[in-house]
Structures are given as C-alpha cells and as structure tokens.
Amino acid sequence: MNGKITALIIFIISFTASISVAADLTSLLAAEAFYQSGYQLYTAPNAGIKEANEAMILFNAALLLDSRADYVPPEMINLAWQFPQGDYSELIKVALEKYLNIGRTADLDVALKGVKYLLEKLESREDRQIFLQTLLDKYGKTNEFFASEVATQMGFLCSETADVNNAQKYFFYAFSTNLYNRSAFNALAQYSTTDKQVLSATAYLQSFRLAVRVNPLDIDSAYDFSRLAESLGLFSAASAGYRYCIQANNYLNPASSYPAEYYRPLALNSMNTRNYRQSSTVLQQVRGYGVFDVMVEAVSAAAAKQSGDTKEADAIFSTIKSNAQKILAGQLAANAAQLQDYAWFYSFVEDSNADALTWATKAYDADHNSVTAQAFLAYALVQNGQSDLAKPMLSKIGTTTQTAAIAQAVIYDINENDSDAIALLKSAIESSPATFEAYKAKEMLKKLGSEYVAPVDSVALETVLANEYGQNYFSEFMPPEKMVTVALKTSSTAFSYGTPLDTQLSIQNNSSEPLLISPDSIIKGGIRVDVRLSGDLKGRFDNYILKTIRPSYVIKPGSALFVPLKLAEGKLKPILDGHPQANLNMEVTVYLDPQVAKNGNVQNIFGSEPVKLIIKRRKLELDTLYLQQRFDALKGGKQGQRIKSVQLFAGLLAEQQNLATMTERYKFLYCEPGLLTSAIAKCMNENDWVLKVQAMQAVQNSSLDYRLVDGISLQLDNNNWPVRLMAVYTLAQTQGANFQTVLTWVVSNDTNKLVKAMAAELSTAK
User: Fold this and answer.
1) Domain boundary assignment for the chain
2) 22: Cα within 13 Å, side-chain hemisphere
3) pLDDT at residue 717 tops 50
4) Count H helices, E strands: the chain?
5) What pLDDT is recorded for position 45?
6) Nearest to 537 by CA among 408, 673, 664
C-alpha cells in the first residue's frame, strides 16, 4: 500500500499544472451529498470537535454548490452551538443571513442560537451592539418575533451601561413588535417602578391577557388582569377574568376547597354589570361547595334587587340576618373571618351602625391582630360617634384598606378637612371601585360636593379589549390535553429502497385562541423521537432526534404547524442504505415536551400518549434482470438514473460486507463484490463530476477494495474542487496513517481553500 501511495503522489505532482479552479460550480445533487456526509459525521454518538470541523467544511461545500439549500444553514448553526469551542464565526454569519432570509418561517430557536454564538465570539460590548443593531435594521420587518428578541438583547446591553433612555427605547420596540415578549414587558415594568414612568393600562392588560393565551394554566396572570380591569372600572372584563380563574382552578385543583378569592370579586363585578343571571350562577356554585359566604350571598341579593326580583333578595337577606342571630345566640359557630364578613355586611350593605359596632367588636375580639378587623372596628366607632377611640387604631393600621380609608375620611369630614377627605375617598374608590365600600365612598363624595372620575374611559378601553380578544374577553377554558392534536404525517406508511422518506410532525391548534410555542408557553416545543427497528434487522434508537422548535409566528385556531423529521438521516441512514434486501419495520415514537421520570420512563406532554407510527421499508426484490438494467443505466442512462444505480450498487456492496459479519442472516441474492466495486469504480472515469461526488459519498459506509481506492485516488487530480474534496474525505476514512503523506501534499499544493482545509483537519490527530 505504501508503494501505491508514493506512486499516487508522483502522479499528482506530474499533473499539477492541469489543476484549475472550476468557477461557479453548482449542483443540487452534489450539495445533498456533502450535506449527508456532514450530517452523519457530526450527529454520530462519538463526534467531537475534530468531526465538527470536518462536518462544517462539508456543509460549507454544500452551501457553495447550492445557495438555495435552506436545509444546510440551520445544521451549520446547530453544529456551532453544539461545539462552541470551534471558531466558525465567519461561516455562521453567512449561515445566519441565509437562514433569516427565508423570513418568518425561520425557527427562532435556531436563529437565536446563531445570534448568541456570534455574540459570545465578540470581545467588546460595542461590537455586540453594532452586530445586534445591524440585525435589527435588516430583519425588523421580515421577522418581527426575531427582531423583538434582538431588541430585547439590545435593551439589556444598554442597561449594563446605565443607558436608561436607549434601554427603554429598545424594550418598548421589543414589546410593541411582539406583545408576547414577556422579558421586554417585565423590563419596562421595572423601569416604570424605578423611574415612576407608568406603562399604559392597556399595555398591562394586554400583557396579562396574552400571558394567559401563552399558558392557559397561568392563573396568576388571569387574576392580575382581573384585578387591574376591576380597578379601572372594566367590570365586564374583570368578571370574565375571574370566571376564567375559577375554570382553570377547577381543572388544576378539582378537589380543592372553596376559592373565595375568585368567587367574591366575580360576584361583585357581576353585580356591577347588572348581570343577574351570572350573579345567581355564582351563588349556586358557591353553595355547591357547602359554603355560606355572607359576602357572596349579600352581593347576589343586591343583584336580585337590581333586577327587580325583590322576593329573592328579601329571602337571601333574611337568611343572612337569621344566621347572624343564631351566632349571637350561640346556636351557630363562626370563625374570625366569618365574623368579619358580618361586620362588613352590617357596615356597608345594611348600613346599620349599631349592628356594625356589635359585629366589629366580636370580629376584633376574635382576632385583634387582624388589620381587617381593626379597620371594621375603627369604622364602626366613627359611625357611632366614638372617633376618639378610632383614631389610635387608624394611626396604627393606616389607610391601606378601603374601610380604614373611609373611616379616616369621616374623621376629616368631622374636622371640616374636606380636601383631605375628598382625596382619601377618591383613593379608596380607585383601589377597588366594584365594592360596596366604593359605593359608600361615592355617596360621601357627593355630600362633600365632589364626585369620582375614573382614570380611564372604561367603555372605550373595554371596546379595545373586546375587539382584540372577543366580546367575552376570555375564551372558555379548554383542558390543555385537548388544545392540540399531534400526529405523524407521511405520504405513505410503506416505502421502497432508494425512495425518500418524508415525515412531518403535525401540531394542530384545536383551541379558539392562537397558539404560541415558546419557552414561556404551555407548549415549549421540545421534541424527542425514538425509533425501534424490527423485521430482518433489529435495533433501538432512543433519542434518535432531540430538538426544540420555536416558530416565529403563532398558530391560528384550526391551523397546524408541520415539523420535518429526518428519520432517514443520521444513525439510521447506513442501515437503510446498506441493507437493500431487508424488510424493515420502523416503529416511530414521538414525544412532545417529554419529561423523564425518576424510574426512567418518558412521559409525554400533559401525561398524554405519545404519537406512534409504524413505517415499513420494503425489501428490494432483486434478480439478475433488474441488476442488468441497473448496469445498463449506469452506462448510458441520464444523470439521475446513473446516480440511482451507483447508490444501489454501493448499498449492495455494503450489504454483502455487513452480512459477512452477521450470524443470523436474512434471505438475500448474493452479488459478487468485485462486480459491484468495478461498476462503481468505472464512474470515476466518467466526465460527470456530480456522479463522481455522489458515488464517493455512497461508498463511505463500505470497505474500499483496490479498485475503488485507485479510482477515487485519481480524483485528487480532478479539475473540479468538489470532486477533490469528496475524494480526500472518502479516502481518509479508510486509508489510515498511510494517507498522511497525501494529506500533507494536498495541504501544500491544492488550489481550493476547502480542499486544503479538509486535508489539514483530517491530518490532525483526534
């Protein structure tokens, strides 16, 4: 072998003058060959930085041969992200640009990996800002979700230098471009708190509402929306929010105790919208818990009275008073919180000063540390002409509760300090305008010659929200497991040797809301694919595909996202290509947002069943006539036919070699390896450089005999750089240390940068 290598070097040197750089070579098929070699190389289980460097060269070659090969740039970015120790900055700049040029279909996870990789390679903050600004200027209109993420990073960079004005500018741009951008909103909210620059109420409401769209189980955001809407007098919107909180809570905590924090404000806001039917429904639901909630009962009675149903109102009020008498008589037990409810009822619903003082005193005695109990007692004392006793208590607890604020306002009024009384009453109303306390405060304002004016036009703002989110403001709660339908889509569940296997994961949005897939979403976009092989060959490939998807757009109701799955690439490709005569069953299992339990079991999203599909790869029915037809096609067929033939012969060659090492063999037609290698080697004598590239890529999973080694070695002198590059790479996989001298010569003498780079990388030790 050493003699052959030496002779090869002499041959190459003698023809050095004939090597010329072929300009502007293009080929979709050759690009695909380089891509397949690179993908299989860097996704191998034992791949390291050396393999990553070689794969990046192969990907670069693919992109040069087919500038529209949109499947190459994301793999280049993923490779660089997986091997950050590699210096691929210039290549990733090109890959990122090509990838983002496809517009809004670019996956954010891939694009942001590219951005973060390049940012980490830049040494100064100024360089990072210039880089991000360039991206923002270029892609601000073509991919708004991407631009929003870039602007957010710019905002954080400005924050590091205390450049507050520019930081706010970028955060505002990020949020306005993508209202789902929670990071940008939180940053703006932080600035609003620090600098007392208030975000608009609409911005807060939108952010809270969209947070629920992103994650329908986010009760906190639904509650924040409801509280804010209520404080602005948007009682219909607030009612919808509290109702949603109840629905979500029932799903999350089906056996939980009565959630008063949602039912009470729902009852109040329903009353304020004069929605008697909903008020009645709320009352029945609360009673269904076996609870007698004085506040909900009283609010429902008031709503009934509003609607003209005085009989129902009187009945409810009568029951409340009857229970109160039983408690006073010791016939019915009541805890501290229930005593406070009766103090509230007699203070603000019945407006009975004497009864209010009785119940406030009992509530205070039951829990004298409670601010609420102290506030009720202070209010009752003031209303009963005992302001001097109330003042020390109010001085202690302040006016943070509506009841305490109203009590203090009464004292101001008594002391003829009308301006302070008016200011305090308005503040009390604004904190929670739906309550009975707020109605009391409004009555007092009128007596003082003033009135409360809401901080916003509630009708106009509710119209804006209704136009954006529907007349009900919130969609009906849908259990998460019903929100999406996940399925595997393929043109057929059976395919033949040599035909492509196109498989896509379909994620269909069944909800009435747009669906966002992101790290903050209820669906985070994690995908795991396991493959189990059965039939003539057996194997198990867990984690065959692990990826995260993050679309740059929302999935509309009724629409679906389709994610291509590369089942026939990577570790399975040598098996599928190298066993043409095997019947194979591929049992594909796909998990969405998988979680691995302590016992090692993999759980699918929401505890649902993973998607499963069995795909059959039919064996090639081989006979001498078919083989002869393939030989004939290799001699005189069109380029596509010749490539198919050489791929078949390479597969049959690999099969013969594989079966020779197997103890249990499946039924197959024996093909003389010498005939196969001879046929493949003849391709090296053709003028079709694309055929040569495809042929060399096809034999990379086989052992090369002298015919193939000689035929491929001659390609080191080919005029076309893709042929030389594939020849160097293919020979290096099989020739071992004996090939080192050739690699050294190629590094010194080849005229193409990629060929030289590959030879240099192949010559380095692992």
Assistant:
1) 23-121, 122-196, 480-618, 623-763
2) 16
3) yes
4) 35, 10
5) 87
6) 664
Which alpha helices (H) appear in 415-536, and where do they start and end? 418-431, 436-447, 458-469, 480-483
Distance CA 651, CA 647 (A): 6
> Beta strands of 349-446 (E only): which ranges?
none
**Sorting pLDDT into bands at 50, 70 and 90, what band is 607?**
confident
Interatomic CA distance for residues 640 and 563, integer angstroms = 28
pLDDT at 596: 87
Cα–Cα distance measured from residue 80 to residue 58, given in angstroms and rounded to the nearest whole number: 14
CA distance 493 to 503: 10
Distance in angstroms (rounded) separating the CA atoms of residues 686 and 696: 13
Which of these, 751, 694, 680, 753, lies nearest to 718 by C-alpha position? Answer: 751
Q: What is the mean pLDDT of residues 219-234?
A: 96
Tokens standing for residue 530: 């396991």
Residue 638: CB partners within 8 Å, gap ≥ 6? none
Instruction: Give 195's pLDDT tier (boundaries 50, 70, 90).
Output: low
Position of tokens 């129902």? 312
What is the predicted pLDDT for the residue at 734?
82
Integer Cα distance of 259 and 406 in angstroms: 27
The 10s digit of each residue's pLDDT in 609-618 is: 999 999 999 9
Residue 347, by phi and psi: left (phi above 0), alpha (psi -120 to 50) or beta?
Answer: alpha
**Residue 552: predicted pLDDT:** 95
Residues 345, 351, 352, CA angle at the centre, nearest 5°? 95
Tens of pLDDT, residue by residue over 428-483, are 999 999 999 999 999 999 999 999 998 889 999 999 999 999 999 999 999 999 99
Helix (H, G, I), strand (E, B) or coil at 565: strand
Of 372, 388, 390, 213, which is closest to residue 295 (Cα–Cα)?
Answer: 372
Residue 484: strand pairing partners: 509
- Span 278-319, pLDDT tens digits: 999 999 999 999 999 999 999 999 999 999 999 999 999 999
Residues 560 and 510: their CA atoms lie apart, in Å, by 9
Fold of 23-121: 1.25.40
CATH number listed for the domain at residues 122-196: 1.25.40
Residue 494, pLDDT above cutoff 80: yes
Answer for the pair 38, 697: CB distance below 8 angstroms, yes or no.
no
How is residue 489 written in tokens? 């889509």
Cα 35 to its chain centre, rounded Å, is 28
Q: Are 35 and 70 in contact (CB under 8 A)?
A: no
The CA-CA-CA angle for residues 100, 103, 106, to 5°, reads 60
Give the pairing of strands 494-496 and 503-509. Answer: unpaired
Q: How far apart are CA 381 and CA 389, in angstroms?
A: 7
Amino acid sitting at position 482 = K
pLDDT digit string, tens, across residues 340-362: 999 999 999 999 999 999 999 99
Asked if the 623-763 domain carries CATH number 1.25.10, the reply is yes
Phi-psi region of 322 (alpha: psi -120 to 50; beta: other; left: phi over 0): alpha
Segment 409-435 mean pLDDT: 92
CATH class of 480-618: mainly beta
For residues 547 and 525, the answer to whether their CB atoms sit within 8 Å is no
Residue 447 CB contacts under 8 Å (≥ 6 apart), including other chains: none
Which of 108-136 are b and which e, b meaning 16 or more Cβ less than 10 Å from the residue's Cβ? bbbbbbbbebbeebeeeeeebbebbeebb
pLDDT of amino acid 733? 85
| 504: enclosing H helix or E strand | strand 503-509
Task: Return the sign of the alpha-carbon dihedral for residues 735, 741, 742, 746.
Answer: positive
- Identical fold, 23-121 and 122-196: yes
